[in-house]
């Protein structure tokens, strides 16, 4: 019953197409969730045009205060097959190749640094740079039949840049197995390895991703942004430094109006009314 009602709730949305139709954009939950749909042919290659368009959209969205989360989905059986191989021939030249990999890397880093969470919605195959995009997202919802692979070895082009995101998402032995053998793993193996957050029936992937976005939307945007930034920063620190840094962040978090509103609401047994701002409350014990 709950799933049925959820489907009914999200039948209504607005959709816009870009001039090149590489991306579709759908708005949900009072325009607080933006769902980008990769829509390039059958395999959604991350051509330079696709990367530039998605990157530009993500940068624009991150500035909109009303947005609480972003979903990256796809049309067709492939989430993304990776870079467009026609752009990687010698005829394209090293300058073009540098532009492709540098721009792609910048976009992956930007996803990590965005204020809002980014959810990958995978209902098919994610390969090479397509897997890199999945691994760069904060949360990944996958259908049971989805496959994940870094098949560069088959082409004589080791998946070096996709491996950067992959090894930060799964154990090294798993990453090296995937990179060296070029063999795919299924969604259950991806879940066990930590590449995927949730696995559901293929028919439920979109609704599950939107449910995740809805849950995130209940909370303070400013606190979510703070938490996301802290999570990735502390992951690169030693345990000792992470705890020292975490203590400072927690103290700062307590000064946020939204934090004190949440604590007050819990004590008062009511629902919090978050402002989603970075406004601070003065320390009452400060002289």
Automatic annotation (TrEMBL):
Recall the GO molecular function terms of this protein's record.
hydro-lyase activity
User: Which cellular component, as a GO term, is one annotated location?
Assistant: mitochondrion
> Which controlled-vocabulary keywords does the entry list?
Fatty acid metabolism, Lipid metabolism, Mitochondrion, Transit peptide
Q: Report any one BP term from Gene Ontology.
A: fatty acid metabolic process
Q: Which Pfam families match?
A: ECH_1 (PF00378)
**Signal sequence, start to end:** none
Please indicate which superkingdom the organism of origin belongs to.
Answer: Eukaryota
The compartments listed are: Mitochondrion
Q: Which CDD domains match?
A: crotonase-like
What is its biological role?
A: May play a role in fatty acid biosynthesis and insulin sensitivity.
- By what name is this protein known? Enoyl-CoA hydratase domain-containing protein 3, mitochondrial
């Amino acid at each position: 019953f709950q799933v049925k009602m959820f489907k009914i709730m999200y039948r209504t949305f607005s959709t816009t197409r870009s001039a090149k139709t590489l991306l579709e954009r759908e708005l949900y939950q009072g325009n607080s969730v933006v769902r980008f749909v990769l829509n390039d042919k059958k395999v959604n290659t991350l051509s330079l045009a696709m990367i530039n368009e998605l990157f530009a959209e993500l940068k624009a969205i991150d500035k909109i205060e009303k947005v609480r989360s972003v979903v990256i989905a796809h049309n067709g059986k492939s989430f993304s097959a990776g870079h467009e191989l026609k752009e990687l021939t010698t005829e394209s030249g090293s300058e073009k190749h540098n532009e492709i990999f540098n721009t792609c890397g910048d976009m992956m880093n930007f996803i990590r640094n965005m204020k809002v969470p980014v959810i990958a919605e995978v209902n098919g195959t994610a390969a090479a740079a397509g897997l890199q995009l999945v691994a760069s997202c904060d949360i990944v919802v996958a259908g049971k039949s989805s496959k994940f692979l870094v098949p560069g070895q088959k082409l004589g082009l080791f998946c070096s840049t996709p491996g950067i995101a992959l090894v930060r998402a799964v154990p090294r032995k798993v990453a090296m197995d995937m990179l060296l053998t070029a063999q795919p793993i299924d969604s259950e193996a991806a879940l066990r390895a930590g590449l995927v957050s949730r696995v559901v029936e293929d028919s439920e992937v979109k609704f599950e991703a939107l449910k995740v976005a809805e849950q995130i939307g209940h909370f303070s945007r400013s606190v979510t942004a703070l938490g996301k930034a802290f999570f990735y920063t502390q992951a690169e620190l030693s345990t000792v430094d992470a705890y020292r840094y975490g203590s400072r962040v927690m103290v700062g978090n307590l000064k946020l109006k939204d934090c004190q509103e949440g604590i007050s609401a819990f004590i008062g047994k009511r629902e919090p009314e978050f402002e989603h701002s970075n406004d601070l409350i003065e320390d009452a014990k400060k002289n």
